UniProtKB/TrEMBL annotation:
GO terms for biological process: carbohydrate metabolic process. The active site is at 179 (proton donor), 258 (nucleophile). GO terms for molecular function: beta-galactosidase activity. Keywords: Glycoprotein, Glycosidase, Hydrolase, Signal. InterPro entries: B-gal_1-like, BetaGal1-like_ABD1, BetaGal_gal-bd, Galactose-bd-like_sf, GH, Gly_Hdrlase_35_cat, Glyco_hydro_35_CS, Glycoside_Hdrlase_35. It comes from Dermatophagoides farinae. Its EC number is 3.2.1.23. Residues 1-17 form the signal peptide. It is an enzyme of class 3 (hydrolase). This is Beta-galactosidase. Residues 31-348 form the Glycoside hydrolase 35 catalytic domain.
Length: 636
């Protein structure tokens, strides 16, 4: 090799002569080798899709100063291929830039490609349109599934290959699937993925799997010729966990790919916290066992837009907009006690010369004068702007080719119903506002298992059902469609047919367009008291106070409002639902605000009731405040 190299020197520059970096598994000695030297990582999870792009560098920098030498991120297929064959790798989806920024911060990257990622994201990161193929069997070797998977990997993996460690990039390891052993046992599927990754990424890169620390998970999760790693949280007996791993993989480094700093959170449930001391204790045990560890999450971030998942199927629960996760770096990028405790511990294991004196532990926040929201239009006023479809039976979101948001189902009663009559929507996913002749009749909810509603209606009445998709499952029930699945009946015997179905995706583009139309003087709608509890849009133009350092991060507080979404300057900040809790405020990042006078636009689509209802003279305010509350009171 050396001789060859010296010979080459005669012809080419010295650079070509030095072999690129190497990152390998030394199975015999239970360790990794980086450039031939024993190596272990202490990594942290951060998901580029949950952190505003302008903050990527800030968060990565803080992770490096915390003492980490690597980061771990999932790749979210649904964000990159929103419709079949249409790809998005720009802006917030610029994965290559994110990986390059990590390298600039001297962080290695562990990439979890999926294609299934779970991650408490809508459909576990799968694009919804997969469900448009009848009988598709996700996460199996079903060709209906593997064909779009391969097409996606052939787009994604060539972008990844130049970023691999052996090619001068920061990526040391690539994960296949995600906790597959908790789900299935189609080894043709997982070995197909392995072979595809090898074909597209070459033979050098370390491929790995992650599964729960149980024999049952590892039996089907493990893929031959792929490094097996496990995941568990604090309080676990590390010696026992390690023994379980080695029962399935006799040699190789001991890796915990998800060491939990906190946990995911649901609406109407307590906010879960993991105490610092037990967290540090088990982390220390892991490090004493020479383990490589990834802390999940190190910085959780936010489920902006409609990307939060639900879980639980028949016990369906939607997750919060916040993905704070009680992580060492909190949702707004501030450093917590857990951060400093980890930093102190890591220093004993990964001696490093990082100068962390200038790390700012908490960034300044701004609070703004109350913003007065103006009523713009009810959902019924807006119908002419929505695309409509006619169908004998209700269509699901997927059948209507709609990813997220809302669908309004409308039909007329053509018989004489009993008084009262029971409307039944057994296939509701997930929450529905029912209107008879455009008057509020009640709310149905899958979470509450309320599928029947007693209503007053007559022959000729118009029935409207506005269904909110509260997030596809990320775990186990991810193959479920959304909207109304099945039929709707009155008194369980009259089948309702001939529906007009309005698609209301409220995606950035469509939202802004509708608002522009609604703001025209000729389409002005007035608020009327009969609008009591009709989902409506409210709007505000506002100016930031003239403070030199503004805009700064802040949190939207919607006391007095019920449930809805808030869109700031075209950025969907996600769902607010303070009456459900425990999340009371939603994160509004500084970079989403504008400085010029009158240049900030806030829209609120309120589903349940605005402060207007009780008092039309109410100024109908929302507030931007300095204090974030994700662990407040919750309904139960
Ligand atoms: C070294 O990295 C360069 C890109 O930086 C790549 O083109 C080349 O193939 C790599 N060499 C080897 C031996 O992997
Ligand atoms: C896996 O592939 C083999 C060989 O093609 C086939 O016999 C077997 O039925 C497949 N298993 C599954 C679960 O598809
Ligand atoms: C962990 O498990 C091992 C083996 O079962 C046992 O010897 C040890 O006492 C346990 N440690 C703790 C802290 O419980
Ligand atoms: C950790 O690695 C060191 C150095 O190779 C070795 O001496 C020690 O026995 C290892 N500890 C464990 C628990 O494997
Ligand atoms: C956070 O910053 C403040 C102000 O700079 C400082 O007083 C405090 O000690 C810092 N906290 C930690 C845990 O470093
Ligand atoms: C309900 O009846 C009215 C009046 O005939 C009609 O304009 C409307 O289109 C019907 N709605 C549906 C959903 O069929
Ligand atoms: C319902 O109304 C329609 C239209 O007015 C009428 O043709 C039909 O006879 C009515 N049905 C009953 C059961 O009254
Ligand atoms: C709705 O009812 C019709 C008529 O009974 C039936 O053909 C159809 O399969 C039902 N739809 C679903 C999704 O069950
Ligand atoms: C539904 O529409 C079809 C076709 O327009 C019509 O024949 C049928 O009578 C309608 N059914 C009801 C219950 O209105
Ligand atoms: C909001 O501000 C913009 C820019 O000044 C203006 O064009 C628009 O009419 C305003 N809208 C409302 C509803 O005040
Ligand atoms: C709203 O304000 C108007 C004008 O000031 C007043 O006449 C009316 O009584 C007020 N309504 C309520 C419910 O306070
Ligand atoms: C908001 O409304 C309140 C009460 O009507 C009023 O006092 C305040 O000046 C308004 N704020 C702005 C910024 O217009």
């Amino acid at each position: 090799m050396l001789t060859k190299c010296l010979l080459l020197l005669v012809f080419v520059t010295a650079v070509a002569c030095f072999p690129n970096g190497t990152f390998t598994v030394d199975y015999k000695n239970n360790q990794f080798l980086k450039n031939g030297q024993p190596f272990r990582y202490v990594s942290g999870s951060i998901h580029y899709f949950r952190v505003p792009q302008p903050y990527w560098q800030d968060r990565l920098h803080k992770m490096r100063l915390g003492g980490l030498n690597a980061i771990q991120t999932y790749v979210e297929w649904s964000s990159h291929e929103p419709s079949p064959g249409h790809y998005d790798f720009e802006g917030q989806n610029n994965l290559v830039e994110f990986i390059n920024l990590a390298q600039k911060e001297d962080l290695l990257v562990i990439l979890r490609v999926g294609p299934y990622i779970c991650a408490e994201r809508d459909m576990g990161g799968f694009p919804y349109w997969l469900l448009r193929t009848p009988n598709i069997k996700l996460r199996t070797s079903d060709p209906n599934y593997l064909t779009p998977v391969d097409r996606w990997l052939e787009i994604l993996l060539p972008k990844i290959r130049p970023l691999l460690y052996e090619n001068g990039g920061p990526i040391i390891m690539v994960q296949i699937e995600n906790e597959y052993g908790s789900y299935g046992c189609d080894l043709n599927y997982t070995s197909h993925l392995r072979d595809k990754f090898r074909e597209m990424l070459g033979h050098q890169v370390v491929l790995f799997t992650t599964d729960g620390n149980g024999d049952g998970y590892l039996r089907c999760g493990r893929i031959p010729d792929v490094l097996t790693t496990i995941d568990f949280g604090s309080g676990t007996n590390v010696t026992e966990a390690k023994a379980i791993l080695y029962r399935h993989q006799e040699f190789g480094p001991f890796v915990n790919s998800e060491y939990y700093s906190g946990w995911l959170d649901y609406w109407q449930s307590p906010f879960v916290q993991v105490a610092v001391n037990p967290f540090i204790q088990t982390l220390q045990q892991l490090l004493d066992h020479n383990a490589s560890v990834n802390i999940y999450m190190y910085h959780g971030g936010t489920n902006f837009d409609f990307k939060a998942s639900g879980n639980g199927g028949n016990n369906y629960q939607p997750t919060l907009t916040s993905y704070d996760y009680d992580a060492p770096i909190n949702e707004a990028g501030d450093l917590t006690d857990k951060y400093y405790a980890i930093q102190k511990l890591i220093k004993q294991y990964l001696p490093d010369t990082i100068d962390d004196r200038n790390v700012k532990n908490v960034s300044s926040k701004m609070s703004l004068p109350p913003v007065n929201m103006t009523f713009l239009a009810t959902i019924f006023d807006m119908l002419p702007w929505f695309v409509k479809i006619h169908s004998k039976y209700p269509l699901t979101f997927e059948q209507a080719n709609q990813a997220y948001g809302f669908i309004l189902y409308q039909t007329n009663i053509t018989f004489q119903p009993t008084n009262p009559a029971v409307l039944a929507i057994p296939g509701l996913r997930d929450r529905a506002h029912v209107f008879v002749d455009r008057r509020f009749a009640g709310i149905l909810s899958r979470t509450q298992k309320y599928f029947d509603l007693s209503i007053l209606t007559h022959n000729g009445s118009e029935l409207s059902i506005l269904v909110e998709n509260q997030g596809r499952c990320s775990f186990s029930c991810f193959s479920e469609q959304r909207g109304i699945i099945g039929n709707v009946t009155i008194n369980k015997k009259h089948l309702l047919v001939n529906w007009t179905i309005y698609r209301i995706p409220f995606q950035e583009h469509s939202f802004t367009e509708i608002i522009t139309q609604l703001s025209q003087p000729k389409t002005k709608f007035r608020f009327a008291s009969s609008h009591y509890r009709i989902p409506s849009i409210y709007y505000a133009n506002f100016t930031l106070p003239n403070v030199p350092e503004y805009p700064l991060d802040t949190f939207l507080r919607t006391d007095g409002w019920g449930k809805g979404i808030a869109v700031l300057n075209g950025h969907n900040l996600g769902r607010y639902w303070p009456v459900a809790g425990p999340q009371i405020t939603i994160y509004a990042p500084g970079p989403y605000f504008n400085e010029a006078p009158d240049s900030n636009q806030l829209f609120v689509f309120e589903l349940d009731e605005s402060p207007y209802w009780n008092d039309p003279n109410n100024s109908c305010q929302v507030q931007f405040v300095k204090q974030h509350i994700v662990n407040g009171a919750y309904a139960h």
